[in-house]
Task: structure prediction
Amino acid sequence: MAIEVKVPVLPESVADATVATWYKKPGDVVRRDENLVDIETDKVMLEVPAPVDGILKEIKRENGSTVVASEVIAVIEPGAAATATPAQAKPASSAAPAASASSQTNTIPLGPSARRAAAEHEVDVHSLQGTGKEGRVTKEDVIKQNQAQPVKQAAVAPSVAPIFTGERIEKRVPMTRLRSRIAERLLESQQTTATLTTFNEVNLKAVMDIRNRYKDEFVKAHGIKLGFMSFFVKASIEALKRYPNVNASIDGNDVVYHGYFDIGVAVSTERGLVVPIIRDADKLSLAEIEKVIAEYGEKARTNKLSLEEMTGGTFTVSNGGIFGSLLSTPILNPPQSAILGMHKIEERPVVENGQIVIRPMMYLAMSYDHRIIDGRESVTFLRTIKEFLEDPTRLLLDL
Result:
């Protein structure tokens, strides 16, 4: 009896989703728990595994289709995969060679981002030597293979050829659900908050000295590098303790004060910007914060972030400096009332004790909702973060 493949239960408040990428075609042999298709919501990417071994008999909803929870999107003929060979699978598909190749994909350790890149560029993953953990083929492996064979890729997939050829060409591509949701949220933020931004600059010499002095010991003790983000998260928390309005939010005519510190960390992905939340960040050490950030970064790259991990948050830290941004005005993430923007560290001449010296300087920007946070409060809050970063021992001594 044929087995139906259904859309999984969608996150709360998500009405529908979009079929993003099928990794199998009708006639392909599939294995139980092998990912068949990615389903994209406006918040997370969901993988739909095969419920049984068998042959994919029919795809009912193609890429780009809008689907709802529990909707049937494919049909599998069970049992056939256990005994089928590529030759036996041939009658199930008019594209026998493709089915035969796909029947072996379960033997290739392949992450979701690598699968999508391989599908987009039509790269044969069986020809790749994985450089990831346990021989896993990474997205970078796929991209390198694609770049090494530009002529072949152009011939096979002209639809992905560069637009900028000197001709007056336009290409219309629908927004992804995540990008569309981001656009809605940003517009909502601009329309429903009284946003202002205040700026300051911070001398990071003390932080950099600590990192350089203890970097090797830190890795040995904790198994992770000591980065800048943990210092900024810690400094933000200490400032939030002193200025509770910045950690509060507006709900109708009420101000909601939060007695906890859930810090959002903005992460850029191919699909768009996501903001996973470090829960109870005030209870974590620098090493624990770095580990959570690293874990979220990996999950973001492989579309493994859950809805729960991106829900809530009382304050956000965004680091545009990793892309070279010197100064920006970050946009609020409602219902949060403030966001801290980090920027590029750049050596600049500054005056210390009447002498001109070169120091690693960073511009800081804090956007805030003026309905709940006054100008004086925003300026002193940002100055407090600056003071903690310029003298990090204050974080340890609770000064």
Observations:
- The radius of gyration is 25 Å.
